[in-house]
């Protein structure tokens, strides 16, 4: 099992729109592409960021899931429509992690 942590940083003035799109359009689509969302988080002192954690059986499954998601015509339509006034994201950071120790509980 591998885990992925993504941190999205909103473009200026777009934090609320970025979070709303993720909650209403992005996260509900994940299961259909094999993306298991474990949680999404915000920090009050970092208003323009959204951090979320996903889980995949292996690296091949992770890559294939994101490729399918990114090429989905419905997602492309939603993304284009939501960015009519410019991109919602300024940048993103992706970290892929695997458990460091066998047998540790993860929650």
Could you name the ranges where pLDDT drops below 50 across 5 or more consecutive residues?
none
Compute the CA-based radius of gyration: 15 Å
CATH architecture, by name, is 2-Layer Sandwich
Number of strands: 4
CATH class: Alpha Beta
**Largest beta-sheet characterization:** 4 strands, antiparallel
Characterization of this structure:
The protein has helices spanning 15-26, 59-71, 73-82, and strands at residues 2-10, 36-41, 49-56, 89-97. With 107 residues, the protein is α+β, with helices and mostly antiparallel strands. The chain has a single domain (2-56, 73-97), classed as Alpha-Beta Plaits (2-Layer Sandwich). It has a 4-stranded antiparallel sheet. Strand 2 (36-41) and strand 3 form a beta hairpin. The longest helix is centred in the middle third of the chain and has 13 residues, at 59-71.
Q: What's the arrangement of secondary structure elements?
A:
Elements: E1 2-10, H1 15-26, E2 36-41, E3 49-56, H2 59-71, H3 73-82, E4 89-97
Antiparallel strand pairs: 1-3, 1-4, 2-3
Output the keywords.
globular, alpha+beta, 4 strands
Summary, kept brief:
It contains three helices and four strands, in the order E-H-E-E-H-H-E.
């Amino acid at each position: 099992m591998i885990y992925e942590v993504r941190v999205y940083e909103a473009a200026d003035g777009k934090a609320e729109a970025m979070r709303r799109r993720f909650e209403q359009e992005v996260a509900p689509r994940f299961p259909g592409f094999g993306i298991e969302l474990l949680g999404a988080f915000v920090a009050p002192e970092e208003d323009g960021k959204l951090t979320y954690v996903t889980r995949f059986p292996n690296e091949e499954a992770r890559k294939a899931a994101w490729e399918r998601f990114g090429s989905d015509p419905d997602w492309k339509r939603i993304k284009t429509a939501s960015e009519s006034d410019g991109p919602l994201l300024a940048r993103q950071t992706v970290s892929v992690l695997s458990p460091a120790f066998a047998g540790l509980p993860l929650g």
